[in-house]
């Protein structure tokens, strides 16, 4: 059995922990906002919105592949490329967009931490400031790599959704039907969910983070195939999780007549088929891990991307005096995120959904810049976008813009 | 003085006032032409779409006005030699090296000065003022901060202090030559601001020895990332020049396949040494030690030992000659003496007479804390590492130990991305 132990210890664990950037980013993407969005979607419409996942899988796969390709071919980060190709004004606009989206997402991560702790019976007045301090110190002074492993392991608890999806005995014929029938419900809530679902799956920050990690892996052109495969595997794994998340909530909450999720405790009910009475605890652990993971990457990657674009000193190796803007942005994001989550009586699920909607609304700005970069032969040589990638990319951007316009119209024009 | 950002987009007219087009870019000669401050050679002018036309610089009215008026009608288009630098395309917004401050900065704007009938590139604006100018907020912000009796944060570096980060098509030699003159620790400081591929391209120009010196100043994880951007042959050449312990640390961080390929291309001796070091866990005495130390056989006299030392110290590239280890033919550690012991001993004395017979020694699997403690407690310059049979395997120098306690190394294992 020694070989098995060795295999598990060395190979399997190292595979899980040093997985490709695409896969890790995808896992971190299923954070508090993602869980709230997909649980809400599953509760509201059961299996009817599963078709979106196929479209989202293709969109996510193509964007991640595009990012991976740009990272490998140019060897530069995304904000680096945006600055070099589009100049200061466009960069300032893109960075503002990124900052707004990431403030919203950071708030959602701390809201996730608040929700998880309250579910475990610890008041958020205690946990949220603690989490903020913890995240700040772990990055600036602590051992981040060990912390990342713990967070990832915690977030892996969400694998329980897969089992819950089976154990809840969904009607598989309805699941299959939902997967292939594009259903659209003409109501504002649906459009909101739709934008949030795209925004939580393909997030602006993820593009910057992913391209950065690929560049730092130092992959060369000959490893392009690996980076591409990693991007698609990541997209697939993420959508697999999402699929079972929707199936599990559909089979439990929606089936039981709960169409609107108002609290984390309700969302946790989807895990009852596997965890029984411990569903709440299991759900909180996963939520805590995913939220902490994203909360520790996100403020840092935001500060890094913005400072890279403007050429300001950056990185935690710099002192506070040398990199005041970097530390200011980093600390500011954590403080804002924690402060909002701290507000007593905050409607957590609504906040989570709103943050993902903001991301979805802002994504086209980043996506269009990415598309223009990936089509620049001076940067990409023969690896410019294929027609399929361009079509899918522009479609995603366009659909989001149209959906945003409809959402705006429906909120501005009162319903008759 | 004129700013590139304010020139681009201006109308260009000939002496009669006829509109030729809009200024799109400025061309300077390659740095190899030896001018300290390069001269503007040509203007790239865009008129109603299409590729810009290049007109040679033959003198113009002052560039300070809101349009550019050429003094003479352009006789013919400028024929590019192919090695010109386009200021907007190649320099503006790019990351460049500040060879004076040892860091990587971004070009926010370029300052041109009129010298005689020419315009020359003098300064590179890398500060907040340049950014605000590009956004069109310079005057506004100036008035705002003026209310508080402050000035806008201006920061520029001289063109002569600028080094280019190599990019495939752009060949800029002078800056690289200057880079080669920098101390390897300073080059390393610059590299730490870069992505692995950029860093690799910069190192590529250096000799194997210099590249190895620079590499040793970087963190092992980054060393590995940079090494992975090289061909296996070049990586092996550089690793051979590194101290074996540093080489092992770097190889340790590389992907398994690449590590094997690089190892296989190394000279047999160096390969063997590095392989032995690789076998030990990086946090143990075995992982920290180097195999470059000096030994003498027992029974020889002080005079012979000194002669031996003179003879082999350079050839073995020993990390320290202050300690000499006495080992028998089976590598068993019999004792140690210091350079001062040796110099102060009578020439005819045998080494056994003045060596320390029970030197402090570490087992291969001793933790790095134990190694640090031994070095600190006994004030050693190096501590020997032996296997279970007391055979000398290597030494950990206090220098290497110092690296361990410096904040940089104990610091957070963050993904490179954020450092």
Q: What structural keywords apply?
A:
heterodimer, A: mainly alpha, globular, B: alpha+beta, 4-stranded antiparallel sheet, 21% strand
The portion of residues forming beta strands of chain B comes to 15-25%
Task: Indicate the percent of residues in helices of chain B.
Answer: 25-40%
How large, in whole angstroms, is the Cα Rg of chain A?
A: 21 Å
Let me know the average pLDDT of chain A.
87
Specify the biggest β-sheet of chain B: 6 strands, mixed
Largest sheet of chain A: none
Q: Structural class from helices and strands of chain B?
A: alpha+beta
Shape of chain A: globular
List the uncertain runs of chain B.
169-174, 407-414
Shape of chain B: elongated
Oligomer: heterodimer
Using DSSP, what is the number of strands of chain B? 19
Class per helix and strand makeup of chain A: mainly alpha
The succession of helices and strands of chain A, N to C, reads HHHHHHHHHHHHHHHHHHH
Largest interface: A-B, 35 and 34 residues
Q: Calculate the terminal CA-CA distance of chain B, rounded to whole Å.
A: 37 Å
Q: How many separate helices of chain A? A: 19
Question: What does the model show?
Answer:
The complex is a heterodimer of chains A (about 425) and B (about 425). Chain A is built from 19 helices and no strands. With about 425 residues, chain A is mainly α. In chain A, helix 3 packs antiparallel against helix 10 (about 190-200) and helix 5 runs antiparallel to helix 17. Chain A is globular, with a radius of gyration of 21 Å. The termini of chain A are far apart. Chain B has 20 helices and 19 strands. In chain B, the strands form 5 sheets. In chain B, strands 2, 3, 4, 5, 6 and 7 form a 6-stranded mixed sheet that branches. Chain B is elongated, with a radius of gyration of 30 Å. Mean pLDDT of chain B is about 85; it is low at about 170-175 and about 405-415. Chains A and B meet through helix 5, helix 7, helix 11 and helix 15 of A and strand 9, helix 3 and helix 7 of B.
